[in-house]
Amino acid sequence: MMENKVFLSFTFYSTILILKMYVVAIITGQVRLRKKAFANPEDALRNGGLQFCREDPDVERCRRAHRNDMENIFPFLFLGAIYSLLDPSPTVARIHFLIFCVGRIVHTIAYLLQLRAPTRSVAYSVAQLPCFSMALQILLATTPYW
Known about the structure:
This protein is mainly alpha-helical. Helices cover 77% and strands 0% of the residues.
């Protein structure tokens, strides 16, 4: 497996994306603490009282960014792993992985920093292109076996 250059490239970019998700989770926690907006009563009690068991727009923005990551990065992990097994060109595969990774990073930055539209939408759309490409190539490669 470690001889598969495409899989190694996929592993690199996937790890970057997982680390990015951890960063968003940490940011969410920090915003919760800063804004004193806790989801659970026990956390609110530990940090000042039940009045802090509440929602906050900034915390919710972080949570939406994280949820969007899960909705998009998890499918990429599946598609990229299967795509890596199809023996694609290492250069083309790396371009697929790079575009998705950069698109997701820009999407998160745009989401968290509330950048002007259509920055986030463009980043989302660009990141979807390699996923659709990989999905199509997987379907084409497996169609004879259905």
